[in-house]
Specification:
alpha/beta, five-stranded parallel beta sheet
């Protein structure tokens, strides 16, 4: 936890300035403006340090120090005196006799105060605080803490500031100040989840207590926990690019039974190396490409915490100690960041000779999640090709024949090997199948009962449907039938994607149990769209443009009438460096954004449009869009940032104009 400092100072403006500086250093500061209140606060909860103005109302500072020295509980409390009245050597000598280590006469420099605070707090814990020596990258500090199951306080000393990071059993649980957002409240304010006034309450009256945001109704408790994880994950990913820092470690043993749900440190390292470790990873590849790579002892303890892509899964599956690194590399694999993760966590190592990989030993492994399942060709019975099980059970075959004009045999598709159907029955069959899928749950799309769900059966029926409407069928169709086939395939793909993902399936099953969503309602596609949209927005924040585009495109496919989804998709395409040279794609993104605003006027869409106009040099139009965004949401962060950027540009233009005039 952050060091607690009590400031006893009557001058409110000076106290405000001191508090701001100390909070910038990561300290938890409490303020009292008279001696009696300061004594009561100390008696209630002992701080780590007292900053004391001697001339205080209620109880004089010297009397306050004397009372502290008389109690065994407070006689070791460190005190720094701040005074503008009692100046001179004789007062300093008297204060030192009472155990005061630093005596600062007003006016003093902020740097002198900060230096005194750091010195005195470090002096108080010489046996528990140790230096890591030379400055090192953040990733090395995180690796050390994780592998050593460190519990306690890590102080990171940067050239311009100090950050405090608390660990429990090797996992980071608290940070202040942050690397991108100043603190948790600033993070929430930037996301529009709390207002400026609520942020002020959080940092002052609530003294940074996170649960205060639940008390005043800003967030529900579950949302608060998720936001805390998001904040910490964002800030520590930024730490990978923060430059070297010197580390001071203070061990505070965690209670034996304490098991918090904390950040996924292996995944954090993996993501950090993907964002900021490309160059180092490339160097690692060059150094060890001719060495044999094998799995090390920690591989099986950490591999299930990583979420690898398909190419990376194949790579780790091929590591056996009998092949050189160069032999396992492929064009589709960007292996550097993954190698950094594996080697930093002692999951893999290199050898000059073929060496057997480590085995799980006594670890009772149930499943390895990062395994590529080999696709097997499924032989499907002809009855599956007929789609008979996709038709509503309440609709009899005789009714189908009567309403569609088809015989029972005419709806049976020809096997894929014999090519697409050439007769007139295909368009009618497509319309029949499209009709049968309306308002069906994901299970009913495949004719599977929820209670008897089977992955094997799901795959069989999925491949049967996709073969039924392969590319050769789409090429011979046009007009309404082509649109219907695309709609069928979209529904099937959405259902398959949900039911094959354990987390999505669990959430979907919960939704099916709700009163408003399920059989006979159109909530299934909407749920899938929400899942994909939320994922896409997270990727946008992380600036992972390809992943954001993919997720948001799926959201738009599932709910094409949602303006918010379309706006975020347009922004993901516009910001993707892959399209920076493609004017067609950038125009497409602008069209999406304009269309989204006609569908749904959102503050986010206007902010996106404002930034596009600003980058194009259309400042007055950009300003108008930013103001539209703020009219809809006063806390819209991108719009506020855009207006500040505009103001700075205008100031620079004015300076340049006057400089040319008077040159």
């Amino acid at each position: 936890m952050a060091k607690r400092i009590l400031l006893a100072e009557e001058n409110q403006s000076l106290a405000t300035a001191i508090i701001k500086r100390l909070k910038q250093q990561g300290f938890d500061v409490q303020h009292e403006n008279d001696g009696i209140a300061a004594l009561r606060t100390i008696a209630s909860e002992l701080p780590d340090l007292l900053l004391l103005e001697l001339k205080l109302p209620g109880l004089h500072g010297i009397e306050l120090i004397k009372k502290l020295r008389q109690s065994p509980r407070t006689n070791k409390l460190p005190v720094i005196v701040l005074t503008g009245f009692y100046k001179g050597e004789k007062f300093q000598t008297a204060a030192k006799a009472l155990g005061v280590r630093h005596y600062l006469e007003k006016p003093f420099k902020a740097s002198d105060l900060i230096a005194a605070v750091h010195q005195i707090l470090n002096i108080m814990t010489p046996k528990t605080v140790t230096s890591a020596g030379d400055a090192r990258p953040f990733a090395q500090h995180l690796r050390t803490a994780f592998l050593k199951h460190f519990s306690g306080l890590l102080t990171l000393q940067y050239p311009d500031t100090v950050r405090l990071l608390t660990f429990i059993n090797g996992a980071p649980v608290a940070l202040r100040p942050g690397f991108k957002s100043w603190d948790f409240g600033d993070f929430l304010c930037n996301r529009g989840q709390i207002t400026i006034d609520e942020y002020h309450y959080f940092t002052t009256t609530a003294a940074y207590r996170h649960d205060s945001l639940v008390q005043i109704g800003c967030l529900q408790y579950g949302d608060l926990l998720q936001a805390e994880m998001d904040y910490l994950n964002q800030e520590l990913l930024c730490a990978f690019d923060s430059g070297p820092s010197q580390a001071f470690w203070k061990v505070v043993p965690a209670p034996e039974l304490l098991q918090l749900i904390t950040l996924n440190v292996p995944q954090l390292l993996y993501q950090g190396f993907h964002k900021h470790g490309i160059q180092i990873g490339t160097q690692l590849l060059q150094m060890f490409k001719d060495k044999f790579i094998l799995l090390d002892k920690n591989y099986y303890r950490h591999i299930n915490f990583l979420r690898l892509n398909e190419a990376e899964k194949r790579f780790v599956q091929s590591i056996d100690g009998q092949h050189k690194l160069a032999d396992l590399l492929t064009e589709e694999l960007d292996c550097g960041p993954l190698l950094l993760t594996l080697t930093n966590l002692n999951m893999a190592r290199f050898a000059t000779q073929p060496t057997p990989s480590a085995d799980p030993e006594d670890l009772p492994l149930r499943t390895l999640f990062n395994v590529v399942e080999e696709e097997v060709e499924v032989v499907v019975e002809e009855s599956l090709e007929s789609f008979a099980d996709l038709v509503d059970n309440d609709v009899k075959s005789d009714d189908i024949t009567a309403t569609s004009g088809l015989s029972a045999d005419s709806t049976t598709a020809r096997p894929a090997e014999s090519g697409p159907s050439q007769d007139d029955d295909l368009p009618q069959e497509i319309r029949l199948i499209a009709k049968s899928l309306e308002d069906k749950s994901h299970y009913e799309v495949f004719g599977i009962k929820q209670a008897k769900f089977s992955v094997v059966l799901l795959k069989e029926r999925y491949f049967a449907i996709t073969r039924k409407f392969g590319p050769e069928v789409l090429m011979q169709l046009g007009g309404e039938e082509a649109v219907l086939v695309e709609d069928i395939l979209s529904k099937v793909a959405t259902a398959y994607d949900t039911l094959t993902d354990v987390v999505k399936k669990e959430r979907y099953d919960e939704l099916l149990g709700a009163a408003k969503i399920g059989l006979g309602h159109k909530g299934d596609d909407r749920f899938q769209a929400q899942v994909q949209a939320e994922s896409g927005k997270v990727f946008l924040e992380m600036e992972e443009w390809d992943n954001a585009e993919e997720a948001l495109q799926q959201a738009v496919n599932a709910d094409s009438n949602n303006g918010d989804y379309l706006a975020n998709l347009g922004w993901a395409i516009y910001r993707n460096p892959r399209y920076s040279e493609s004017q067609a794609m950038r125009n497409k993104a602008k069209q999406m954004l304009n269309k989204s605003i006609t569908m749904e006027r959102t503050a986010q869409a206007f902010a996106y449009k404002g930034w596009i106009l600003l980058e194009a040099g259309q400042e007055s139009m950009a300003e108008a869009e930013f103001n539209k965004a703020l009219k809809l949401s006063a806390s819209q962060t991108m719009a506020r940032k855009g207006l500040r950027t505009l103001k700075n540009q205008q100031e620079q233009q004015k300076k340049g104009f006057f400089k040319r005039m008077f040159k």
